[in-house]
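batch job 7 of whatever, protein = CoA:oxalate CoA-transferase
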Amino acid sequence: MKPLSGIRILDLTRVLAGPFCTAILADLGAEVIKLEPPQGDDYRHVGPFLSGESALFALNNRGKQSVVVDLKAEEGRALALKLAAKSDVVVENFRPGVADRLGIGAAALRAANPALIVASISGFGQQGPAADLPAYDVVVQAMSGWMDATGEEGGTPMRTGEAIGDVAAGLYAVIGILAALLGRSAHGGAHVDIAMMDCLVAMLPTSHALQHYAGQPVTRTGNRHPLSTPFGAFRSADGQIIIAVLGHRQFAGLCALMGQPGLAADPRFASDEARTAHEPVLRALIEGWTTTLTTEALIASLRAAGIPTAPIQTLAQALQSPHAQARGLVADLPHHRLGHSPVAGQPIRFDGQKPLSATGAPALGGDTRPVLTALGLTPDQIAGLIAAGIVQENDLG
């Protein structure tokens, strides 16, 4: 199933948040035309590299067509406007105001195509006192409350292990674009404003519960949950294991499994709140049991008792698991230089099928000539633009 078949996306984005968004749209069947500057997307020059190809670029630009256009030239901007007029969606992640100064801002694009949806992804949004600030993921993690909530108990703030701000903005951009497409017949085009800061603030439900409802400050709790106990990582005889108990029934089952059924009736552990208040004492009791058994033995016992548990796996271990293999979490796509390119792709299934792009990331300018030909330019016009350095092509495409 390709739910977005027939939808054309003009992709003016670079690096991560924007390309992550448009790669998902490509998986879902949209035609994605990626406009790149002569030097290409910045991610083409960021490692790790394989045979000269950036892994990060390959992962986040699957299924797209690459057209090289110099947007600093008047003729280049005219081409971008012409492509936008024939598109359903334009996605850009320039710093606010830059697209307007180039003459390809939302107002100019929608003037040529009132039904157009323009999605603008930025660090802090199109308006507001911080709108002009440069934003990398770690900057937004720091300002949003994510770093303050993350880290060892009593330790310093810590960023998450992935660029969650970029990924979150990419995902919310997909949501906004799909909603705008759904409502276009009734409401016309739209300018969708996606800010990394807004997205990360929206993705802190536990912190909001503490801040706004419990009147408690958000504190770092390491690998345990701030509200539920026992819910987190515990030492085993050969490593660590996750135990996630929610509710008294599961807690009673854990106590029985530990050989201490009476703990379930202990007033200190009679409710989730009480268990959290007495977490150090309860942890010591639980680890008195878990440290006598291997991770493998604990997993088997806990699962047999219906208690949620997991080993802490590396990505390699996760992908090698029978479940990941059965679900096809990573697939190989054909690539112009590498031969094949492993990608995770979008994870949603429709009637049991997971849509995925048919091709890997494009060569820089590999689709310039066919895209401009489809736009109505003659071979002589394209040759003139190439000679003038307004566009570039790459025969590897």
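notes: The first strand starts at residue 8 and ends at 12.
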